[in-house]
Amino acid sequence: MKNPVLFIHGGGEGAYEADRPLAASLQGALGVEYDVRYPAMPNERNPTYAAWKDAIARELAAFERKAALVGHSFGASLVLKYAAEEPLDGRASGLFLIAAPFWRVEDWDVPEFALADDFAAKLPAELRLFFYHSRDDETVPFTHLAHYREALPSATFRELDARGHQLEGNLAEVAADVLLVR
């Protein structure tokens, strides 16, 4: 049986197609022992947390083993929110969050997507957390990573150079961490 990975794409028009190379890169780097599921999330152009939460729950319920949860951009922020608000019941081996926006800062203050003040305390203690962000990301400012670092000092943070918002389509660092947590 293959090791499951759930990849949640970003939001906005065309995000599913834009993130397809990331999911393919992850699958290629992980190899045949892993199965990267890449579902199209509902209404990517105008997403709601409720709809994406339900979709994530359905996807997780379909796995027979612990899954690595990978999210990109908007998807990363919702994967983290889901893990902080919904019972994972040991169904996740780790969270791998790429270019995650922090929804409580100037110009990004969206209450529907924001994490609760005590979100860090609500995450399962055994859950490994990894964040990846390129310093030259023009979509989600690199400064958002500092907010996560402050709230989650025990998480692993990978600061990348000259990779942009899409990490140049290369998720080798993410794959290495997924293999580490296996």
The domain count comes to: 1
Helix content: 25-40%
CATH topology group: Rossmann fold
Report the total helices.
6
What is the top-level CATH class? Alpha Beta
Name the CATH superfamily assignment: Alpha/Beta hydrolase fold, catalytic domain
Distance between the termini: 14 Å
Low-confidence stretches: none
Instruction: Find the count of extended strands (DSSP E, 2+ residues).
Output: 6
Radius of gyration: 15 Å
Give the mean pLDDT. 96
The strand order across the widest sheet is 2-1-3-4-5-6
The major pleated sheet works out as: 6 strands, parallel
Residues in β-strands, percent = 15-25%
**Which second-level CATH architecture applies?**
3-Layer(aba) Sandwich
Structural class by sheet pairing and helices? alpha/beta
N-to-C SSE string, H for helix and E for strand: EHEHEHEHEHEH
Sum up the overall morphology in one term.
globular
Keywords:
single chain, 182 residues, alpha/beta, Rossmann fold, 6-stranded parallel sheet, globular, AB_hydrolase_fold
Please provide a brief summary of the model.
With 182 residues, this protein is α/β, with parallel strands linked by helices.
Topology:
Blueprint: E1 3-8, H1 15-30, E2 34-37, H2 49-61, E3 67-72, H3 74-85, E4 92-98, H4 119-122, E5 128-134, H5 144-151, E6 156-160, H6 172-181
Parallel strand pairs: 1-2, 1-3, 3-4, 4-5, 5-6
Helix pairs in contact: 1-6
Account of the protein in words:
There is one protein chain. This protein has 182 residues and is α/β, with parallel strands linked by helices. The chain has one domain: 3-Layer(aba) Sandwich (Rossmann fold). It is built from six helices and six strands. It has helices spanning 15-30, 49-61, 74-85, 119-122, 144-151, 172-181; strands at 3-8, 34-37, 67-72, 92-98, 128-134, 156-160. A six-stranded parallel beta sheet has the order 2-1-3-4-5-6, sandwiched between helices. Strand 1, helix 1 and strand 2 (34-37) form a beta-alpha-beta unit. The protein is globular and about 45 Å long. It starts with a strand and ends with a helix. It comes from Sorangium cellulosum. It holds the Pfam family Ser_hydrolase. This is Alpha/beta hydrolase. GO terms for molecular function: hydrolase activity.
